[in-house]
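Model it.
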Amino acid sequence: MSEAKWYVLHTYSGYENMVADNIMKLVENNNLHHLIEEAMVPTETVVEERNGKTHEYKSKLFPGYVYVKMVHTDQSWYICRNTRGVTGFVGPGSEPIPLTDAEVANLGIAKKTTSVSFAVGDTVKIVSGTLNGMEGKVDEIDEANNTVSLTVSVFGRQTSATIEISAVQKLDI
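Modeled.
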């Protein structure tokens, strides 16, 4: 079991993805996987209807913030704090405070493992998110990324959507 915890970095607006990528490049180049396990920008997929067309895009859940799972040492603190675009850690003073397990669970930044009770070709109901209440047919299940690809009917047109496995449940037909 690793002793890494989740910390929050404050960044300049618009620099979130660059900061996360640069931190992970430094980790990879310097073989520091034992100190910094992951840097991520939580996003959600938004489906929007404009001018009769359905548009799907990623939206940042917390603009201006990057979540980093790391073991707090002087070296890991230095790498994160001195990455271009970072203004500091979230917490009082200069000392970062890790997120509690409850905060991590509520934010949904940790990968959850979910049991799959359906198969490709099954009809499922979406139980959360922007497509809540819609039904769709399972096209693909990606357990590694905890997602399922569906075909749903949006305004009478068949549309592909990729959502979390936990947001779907099998219909009993």
